[in-house]
Amino acid sequence: MKEQQSGSVVNVASVGGIRGVLNQAAYVASKHVVSGMTKNAAIEYAQYNLSINAIAPGAIMTAMVVGSLKQIGGEEGWEEAGKEFVSINPKRRLVNLKK
C-alpha cells in the first residue's frame, strides 16, 4: 500500500477499550492498544495517502461476555449485571449474532 500510495486499513477495537469494562483489564488494555496504534499509524502513514481507521463495536452476546457477567453477577444474577454492558451501547441492547 505504501508503494502504491493508496489503501485503507480498518482495525477492530471495542467500546470497552474506550470506556472500560469491569473485571476485563486485559481485554480493555488490548483494545486501548488497537486504538492507540490506529491513531499513530494514521498519522504516520497519511503522507503515503493511506487511510487507517478503527471501528469500536459495542457489547455482543458472546461466551466471553456471558462469562464476564457471571463473574460480576453470579449464576443467578448475570442477566441483571448485563444492564451495565447494555448501557455502553448506543442502541441500549446486547447484539445477538444468532438473530
Automatic annotation (TrEMBL):
InterPro entries named among the record's database cross-references: NAD(P)-bd_dom_sf (IPR036291), SDR (IPR050259), SDR_fam (IPR002347)
Family according to the record: Belongs to the short-chain dehydrogenases/reductases (SDR) family.
Listed PANTHER family: 3-OXOACYL-(ACYL-CARRIER-PROTEIN) REDUCTASE, 3-OXOACYL-[ACYL-CARRIER-PROTEIN] REDUCTASE FABG
Name of the featured protein: Cyclohexanol dehydrogenase
Species annotation: Paenibacillus amylolyticus
